[in-house]
Amino acid sequence: MSDLMSKNKALMLRIYEEMWNKGMPASAVEIFNQPEGVERFVSQFLLSFPDLQHTVEEMIADGDRVAVRFSAQGTHTGMWMYFAPTGKPIQYTGVTWARIAENMIVEHHTWWDKASLIEQIGG
Fold first, then answer.
1. Buried b (16+ CB within 10 A) or exposed e, 101-122
2. Which among 15, 69, 88, 122 is most buried, taking Cβ atoms within 10 Å?
3. Domain ranges of the chain
4. In whole angstroms, what is the distance from residue 81 CA to residue 48 CA?
């Protein structure tokens, strides 16, 4: 694996290890070239699921692109969307695809099982 792909994978890991698992959404400014929406989403989501932990299940890098398959689990202890806190444990899976340039994520898309999460908390 090239140095570039190793660096790109390490950058992607920061999303899960720092932003989510350590509860440091402000790290987005060091990871994304447009961090505002990402930082806001992570901050708000962690208010509802403050113990949320992500596990990287698989990561594939090819040139400037990285794909990650992840799982997450936590507890619903804060208001999320229109769901009052339930105290229920939750888990979901997802995939993130990103393009990296100059050590920053310049494009990214995440697909996750939101319907399953809603079902778990009583939707």
1. eeeebeebeeeeeeeebeebbe
2. 15
3. 3-120
4. 9
Q: Cα–Cα distances in Å, from 51 out to 22, 45, 61, 91, 113?
A: 9, 11, 29, 12, 18
- State percent of the chain over pLDDT 70: 98
The residues with which 100 forms a beta bridge, in sequence order, are: 105
42-73: per-residue pLDDT in tens?
999 999 999 999 999 999 999 999 999 999 99
pLDDT at 40: 97
Cβ atoms within 10 Å of 94's Cβ, excluding its own: 16
What architecture (CATH level 2) is domain 3-120? Roll (3.10)
Distance CA 69, CA 40 (A): 22
As a whole number of angstroms, the distance between CA 95 and CA 6 comes to: 19
pTM over 0.90: yes
Across the range 35-41, mean pLDDT stands at: 96
